[in-house]
Amino acid sequence: MTKLPFFPISRRRTLAGLAGGAALAALPFPLLARPETENPVFRHGVASGDPDAGSVVLWTRVTADASVEVEWELAETPGFAAILQSGRMTATPASDHTVKLLAQGLKPGGTYYYRFRALGATSPVGRARTLPEGGLDRLGIALASCSNYAFGYFNAYEAIARDADVDFVLHTGDYIYEYGADGWGGDVARKIGRVHEPANEIVSLTDYRQRHAQYKTDRGSRAMHAAHTLLACWDDHESANNPWTGGAENHQSETEGDWPSRRAASIRAYYEWLPVREPEWLAHKGRSRMQFWRSYRFGDLATLCTLETRHTARARQIDYMAHADAIASKEDAARFRRDVLGEPGRRMLAPELEADLAAALSRSVREGQPWRLIGNPMPIARTDVPDLVSLGILPDPADDPDASGSAKALAWKGKWNLPFYPDTWDGYPWARERLYDLSRRAGAGDLVFLTGDSHSFWANRLADAQGRPAGIELGTAGISSPGDFMASGFGPELSPRLDRAFAEHVEEVVWTDNMHQGYVRIELERSRGLASFIAVDTVLSPSFRVETLRRFAFARSDGAVDYL
Predict the structure, then answer these.
(1) Cβ neighbours of residue 285 closer than 8 Å, sequence gap 6 or more
(2) Which residues make beta-bridge pairs with 460?
(3) Reduced to 3 states, what is the DSSP secondary structure of residue 325?
(4) CATH superfamily entry for domain 11-33+132-275+293-384+419-563
(5) Which of 71, 189, 347, 492 has CB 3.0 to 4.6 Å from 117, enough for a Cys bridge?
(6) How many CA atoms lie within 13 A of 118 on its CB side?
(7) Cβ neighbours, 10 Å, residue 322
(8) pLDDT digits (tens, 9 = 90+) for 53-98
(9) Distance CA 169, CA 402 (A)
């Protein structure tokens, strides 16, 4: 695979009137041409999401103190020459003046335009799509994750808004971050004027609402949401770092109250501020907001299932520090992997989710769809750290009095060939094998996992514990969150060497890059797919350029999927 400079000119993009080259192409439709323009009434923009073949969620928020009547309109053209549907709603303090409605009775595979009016102002125009039915030859999905306001501008969102090969956006989580102004990213935020609001770590409903509001003032966010319909799942930072069913690593009950109340506040704010269906709008009745997983069918081409891995089933994460003193040999490390990480019953997915997933995958196979995608909040590939000291990449911390804590931790994991992070699927091998077995029993051992969380680009080749192919994984870097090697202080010289070490010495890793921020565009045709890893050159300024770092083509054969 060769490094490709910037967006190439494709036939589809040319027909859409978009130019290739170093500069960003024109926006998908003219009314989005000035995303930097702030509307004082609709300052958080508009959004659409969570579609099916006949309906889609439309969203906005009104800046007001009291209850306000809001009008909405839907049309098939951006000029609204003919209004297809319209209505009135009330934005109230009870929902933080957000407005969310389910536009129904729409055509499968339709493209629609919508807008809102309130207090004498008209919102920006948004574009929404419903899911197609029947024959479909192509699908383009932008994979996004990890947008941290403090670390920089959401330039990759704006690049997605301008990408004419994108039909839908899949956001796999960390849509907001909970840290306070002095938390992770605070130093960068003060330099570029993007300090978190409120200044404290967010805990209450008011806090979470204010943080969502701040994130949606970013111009890239407003442009992306107006241009493309969102498919979403959450990860951890929408509530707090590393949650499980009984708490979170970044929740201290002594000073921050009880965990169920904080979690409930975060989920309520999420549903208020994102274009996602309320439980009563779902075919499955009796579900709760916490049971946030979906299945999307794209005609006869693909099914995409999203996962909920934080609040409904996850067992508590394993803390390496609690076991470090007990690992002094290869035998100790093997025992730790088997008895601690691999303890049977350490769940990741709720039984109801597993049942829904099995049904969706079985239906996809039965109907002959060529592609089955998993919207996956965190890496599923085995990423055991190679022995970086023996490879000569890291100095031995024992001989380096200036070695950082990050270097010591990475060297220790590499010495015993332990997983990079126990919070990912690597820390739940029993649950991972259960998922692989579920997919194989459904006849779908050819999954394509679309993954966020790690702040790095990944192209991974998956296998189960018996070495049988289990699909591929395409992972995206952060929208603005920095790669772990760079964030840990390894710098621009050592970080690429660490990337290469993982690709060369970790069996499931084909390629990885933690140096950039950006997104992945996945384009599916009937016989093959193409993943483009697209980076922005900076998040420290709203002026930026885009670059396609790598492309990987992939295809299915004999019940498996692999790179070409």
Answers:
(1) 279
(2) 473, 509
(3) helix
(4) Alkaline phosphatase D (PhoD) (3.60.21.70)
(5) 71
(6) 31
(7) 9
(8) 999 999 999 999 999 999 999 999 999 999 999 999 999 999 999 9
(9) 44
Per-residue pLDDT tens over the stretch 342-369: 999 999 999 999 999 999 999 999 999 9
CA distances 44 to 229, 277, 289, Å, are 16, 19, 23
- Residue intervals of the chain classified under CATH 3.60.21.70 are 11-33+132-275+293-384+419-563
Given CATH 2.40.10.10, say whether it is the number of domain 34-131: no
Contact assessment for residue 196 and residue 180, using Cβ atoms and an 8 Å cutoff: yes
CB burial of residue 540 (10 Å; 0-12, 13-18, 19+): middle
Rounded Cα–Cα distance for residues 346 and 351 (Å): 13
Question: What are 147's two structure tokens?
Answer: 């947008």
Neighbouring residues of 274: CB distance < 8 A, sequence distance ≥ 6: 47, 49, 59, 175, 230, 232
Whether the model pTM is above 0.90: yes
List the beta strands (DSSP E) in 51-158. 56-61, 68-75, 83-91, 98-103, 111-118, 121-122, 126-129, 138-144
- Structure tokens, 389: 């000291």
Q: Which helix (H) or strand (E) holds 248?
A: strand 247-248
